[in-house]
Amino acid sequence: MHPTDFTLRGAIDALNEGIITSVDLTQAHLDAIAALNPRLNAYITVTGEQALAQARASDARRKEGVAGPLEGVPLAIKDLFCTAGTLTTAGSRILGNFTPPYESTVSANLLRDGAVFLGKANLDEFAMGSSNTTSASGPVENPWSRANDPDTRLVPGGSSGGSAAAVAARLALGATATDTGGSIRQPAAFCGIAGIKPTYGRCSRFGIVAFASSLDQAGPVARTVEDCAILLRSMAGFDPKDSTSADVPVPDFAAACARGVKGLRIGVPKEYRLEGTPPEIEALWEQGLAWLREQGAETVEISLPHTQFALPTYYIVAPAEASSNLARYDGVRFGLRVTEPNSDLRDLYERTRAQGFGAEVRRRILIGTYVLSAGYYDAYYLKAQKIRALIKRDFDEAFGKVDAIVTPATPSAAFGMDEKQDDPVKMYLNDVFTVTANLAGLPGLAVPAGLDAQGLPLGLQVIGRSFDEETVFAVGAAIEQAAGFTALPRLRAGA
Ligand code: GLN
Questions:
Q1: Which of 41, 83, 222, 422 is most buried, judging by how many CB atoms fall within 10 Å of its CB?
Q2: Which reaction does it catalyse (predicted)?
Q3: What number is the average pLDDT over the span 421-438?
Q4: Non-local CB neighbours of 243 within 8 Å, separated by 6+ positions
Q5: pLDDT tens-digit readout, 381-421
Q6: Which class does domain 8-495 fall in?
Q7: Measured from the CB, is residue 130 less than 6 Å from ligand 1?
């Protein structure tokens, strides 16, 4: 067995049993990155020497009998998480030279638990996108390809496309990601892996480059549901440095994966039956529900009546917050500065921002500034906030009747790198099944459940009650077990 083929759980066991050292496991991943990253572009920065030093230190700790829950496990870190002393670009030219002096809380928690960092994973610029084609470091390629059209390069999804592609191609055992409107779940589904956006407040946002602060949440992607559960336990927890982080206990999520679904009531929202959804996705959804029934769950049709307003609401709230958050990139305090000999301050701002931000980020700043401007604030932003409250209320009512909700993760399988690039609205439609959980602050997990006719992975989504990730993991693990998803991407280490 190639060392990069371990699951994260399997690697922890192998390390504990002395079957492999962290140095060997880390080196195998660095070799795989050297071989495949030139094609996939999943990593922006590879920190090979630092990773090996961390691995040596980890092996030494283990010898002394000290082993954290992630002792010696090599991971990728989305390049949106600040890592002390390591370039953190957010996929943007404007942060192209930014090396933070501090560590994000989530990555610090992973280091505390013994993890090894292989490098920084590529992403859509400032996490805005669904295809990982807007990064200043270039697009990421999905390691999967269509059976009858292997030459068309596919997107890995976005914005956490580098994280998902790295994990799917076996260039990391797991990765951090963030999800503002679907950026963990959609790339996980496109790459045939699992990923969870936890409840808003479960993970600290401290040290994560902000996109839309009331929606952003960190979470893991990994090749199994249990691996996500193990990673989330380390990532999560109260942090006094983030006033929105929740002071609630962090349960043993991995234990919850084995709970089963007997007696659970699973909601099936009728508004998620969208016209134009490929029949394969409809069929997979039905299949997933049948699997859960076979394992003792009951499926119940529910209604989330404001679902149709979720996308327009998201695409007002998220750009509004983004336009405010991105005001800090002024050429003075962070990153890129563009001046001319006679530049005054205004000229410095304009040149820096015009050259520093890519087209999609500029579009979001324009939309956001517009919806927040005097005269339009009530018509757009305030109305969106009200609808957001109604969407949340829909879920509150549904969770009076059901324990979890199951839907498709995405309205399509991975698409070609050249597709949907001419029409931003088409790109935004990718998020139709995922943005609701962000607007309501709820946990959502994507789990690979099947293949389409082209042999591309398709995922199902499990949405749960606030701070009830345990039920989400139980349902996700039950689907995973029934699906027995063993297909592999064409581009992967050891292939
Ligand atoms: N695709 C969505 C967007 O472009 C979601 C991004 C995200 O979750 N970070 O805004």
A1: 222
A2: L-glutamyl-tRNA(Gln) + L-glutamine + ATP + H2O = L-glutaminyl-tRNA(Gln) + L-glutamate + ADP + phosphate + H(+)
A3: 92
A4: none
A5: 999 999 999 999 999 999 999 999 999 999 999 999 999 88
A6: alpha beta
A7: yes
